[in-house]
Design brief:
β12 and β13 form a beta hairpin. The strands form 2 sheets. The chain has a 15-stranded antiparallel β-sheet that branches. Strands 1-2 form a two-stranded antiparallel sheet. It is globular and about 60 Å long. By secondary structure, it is mainly beta. It is built from 3 helices and 17 strands.
């Protein structure tokens, strides 16, 4: 159980975060990663709680195909883990800063990754060949991301690919979906979405439109995640753990320009505590998590 727990996947902001990683040679090229991989994203349900002040209008991105945007995505995922009364271990993956060139298409957004940086020197080195890799978002009419497409450059090592996938999953599950009905400043709506994984989660994001100036929106977010199961099915059919406690909550503010494909600014941070128990022994696994997603120029 001890060996197993050290390799478990920790959940935060709707995605999995590898606990411990070993950076491989820059020449590593896993089979199949030279092609685009598409991962569907669960559908969202939006509900208006408060329509806000007049004047009200539908919130929709007014993207002309070919519209471009330069933006930087930064992610930081912190994980501390304890087994029974053993010492607390920090198994956090390294933070990353990802410069992006975005271009709007007819049904989504295509991103080109720039020179990704990380404070971890091994990961920073592994990320160098990823410069120029492509990422795509399929986007619904309401702005919800319905699919994530990853096309790393063939020379990108497995460690870098996994880190990039983690970062974009974090970003996807903290993206903004607009309500169907017209709303004004002060409007509140909820966005419900299932987060797939070995612990299926229901994520409810409460959005408040705090300011609007033409196409410029400021939206405050309040995020909760609740497990839809009482067990955690371990990877590779290695058994399951009972979920004793699971509390994840977060807040943030996002700046949106309806004429651009991605957020222009903002930070969302989600964190909490999780406790799991092995039903066949007295082993208890406790985790403290905090994930931050930041958009900026």
């Amino acid at each position: 159980m001890l060996v197993l727990a050290m390799t478990l996947t920790a959940f935060g902001v709707g995605c999995s975060a590898p606990g411990e990683r070993t950076v491989e040679s820059d020449n590593t090229e896993p089979v199949g990663f030279n092609k685009e991989v598409t991962m569907p994203i669960e559908a969202v349900t939006t509900t208006v709680v408060e329509p806000g002040a007049e004047p009200r209008s539908q919130l929709r991105r007014t993207l002309e195909p070919g519209t471009t945007q330069q933006v930087t995505l930064s992610t930081d995922h912190h994980v501390e883990q304890q087994i029974n009364n053993q010492a607390l271990r920090d198994i956090s993956p390294p933070a990353m800063t990802i410069p992006l060139s975005a271009q709007a298409g007819n049904d989504g957004v295509e991103l080109t990754i720039g020179n990704v940086t990380s404070p971890d020197p091994n990961l920073a080195k592994a990320l160098l060949p990823a410069d120029g890799s492509r990422v795509g978002f399929d986007v619904s009419e309401l702005g919800a991301i319905t699919a994530l497409k990853l096309a790393p450059k063939p020379s990108t090592p497995d460690t870098a690919r996994a880190a990039l996938e983690q970062a974009f999953y974090q970003a996807v599950y903290q993206s903004i979906a607009f309500p169907q009905d017209p709303v004004g400043v002060g409007a509140v709506w909820t966005v419900r979405q299932q987060v797939s994984g070995s612990v299926p989660l229901e994520q409810v994001t409460t959005c408040t439109l705090t300011a609007r100036d033409g196409n410029q929106l400021t939206i405050e977010l309040n995020v909760t995640q609740t497990p839809k199961s009482t067990v955690w099915h371990l990877p590779n059919e290695a058994g399951q753990l009972e979920i004793v406690d699971y509390l994840m909550h977060g807040t943030g503010t996002i700046g949106v320009d309806l004429g651009l494909p991605l957020p222009v600014s903002g930070t969302v941070e989600v964190g909490g505590n999780q406790t799991y128990r092995d039903p066949h022994s007295s082993v208890t696994l406790r985790q403290t998590l905090r994930t931050e997603v930041q958009w900026g120029a």
